[in-house]
Amino acid sequence: MKKKSNEKETAVSDDVQIELFSTPEGVKAIKSPVRVKILSMLREGDLSFDEIVKHSGRAKSTVSSHLKLMAKEGIISSRVDPNDARKKIFFIQSEYIGKLHRQQLQEDISAYIQRYIASENDPFEFFRLIFHTLRISLLNQGVDIDPILYEAGLKVGEALYVKVKDPDMTNFLGNIAAFWETHSLGFVEVKDLQPITIGVQDCFECSGLPYLGRPACAFDSGILESLFSLYNQKEVKVTETECYALGDKQCRFVIE
Predict the structure, then answer these.
(1) For 24-72, what is each residue's pLDDT tens digit?
(2) Which sign, positive or negative, has the C-alpha torsion 69, 71, 76, 79?
(3) Which of 56, 55, 53 shows the shortest CA–CA distance to 87?
(4) What's the pLDDT at 132?
(5) pLDDT for the residue 9
(6) pTM value?
(7) Cβ(94)–Cβ(74) under 8 Å?
(8) Which residues does 119 contact at the CB level (< 8 Å), separation at least 6?
(9) Would you identify the CATH topology of the domain 145-255?
(10) What angle do the packed helices 218-232 and 169-182 form, to 10 degrees?
(11) Half-sphere exposure at residue 126, Cβ-oriented, CA atoms within 13 angstroms
(12) Beta bridge partners of 76
């Protein structure tokens, strides 16, 4: 009987829930069961430290440690309790994106690898496989590399600008589309000019990824933000409104 109990505990622990929160520093993946529980309570409403301790069933020192770490990461914040200046009220200051399950991610990775190994001989596709597998595996461990990919995209955009720049917006957009296609990054189509909206089919960064529940093209977003900021000679914001990782049939970027 004891052996069965241990097997059950292992099965449960394998299916770890990972919650995603968007902060000014990037998307944070939370996999600690304690933090997941605390954040779940805070999504229902602001709570005092004592209330969090009571409902989480954890020691004060444990709760305090997790609250400090999440505050440092920009996920939560606190304010003085209006009824007692010695106490704090905690609240979520980041944006809740959604949740993933580690077991499902592991199954998706296995299926993804088998699909490409069995059907593709293209070296580029194998590189895409490595890139995507590494990215999902890191996310599976609670490591978010989107901020790194975004910063890398900004640097690539700066270097790329000299190759695609043109005073005419139509030519500029055409040069970007040509570069994307030539380097197998995807097929770019301009959807609108007010604001500039770009659709990307067969996106290198995320096409073929399992469902993640959030946009996954941090690298492309960084490139586009850099390109259009340099073109407009002022900072612009790039928002990915559609993505293969969201279950969409293309990626779509709005530049404002």
Answers:
(1) 777 777 878 899 899 999 999 999 999 999 999 999 999 999 999 999 9
(2) positive
(3) 53
(4) 66
(5) 35
(6) 0.54
(7) yes
(8) none
(9) Muramoyl-pentapeptide Carboxypeptidase; domain 2 (3.30.1380)
(10) 150
(11) 6
(12) 92
| Residue of 139, 155, 239, 151 whose CA lies nearest to 195 | 239
| 14-98, CATH topology level | Arc Repressor Mutant, subunit A (1.10.10)
Report domain extents, the chain. Answer: 14-98, 145-255
Pull the structure tokens for residue 43.
């999504």
Token output for 42: 């805070």
Tell me which DSSP letter residue 213 carries.
Answer: S
Neighbours of 152 (CB within 10 A): 15
Structure tokens of 94?
């980041």
Alpha-carbon distances of 81 from 35, 47, 127, rounded to whole Å? 22, 10, 53
Name the token pair of 7.
């097997």
Tokens encoding 38: 């605390």
d(CA 38, CA 129): 36
Q: Is 74 left (phi over 0), alpha (psi -120 to 50) or beta?
A: left
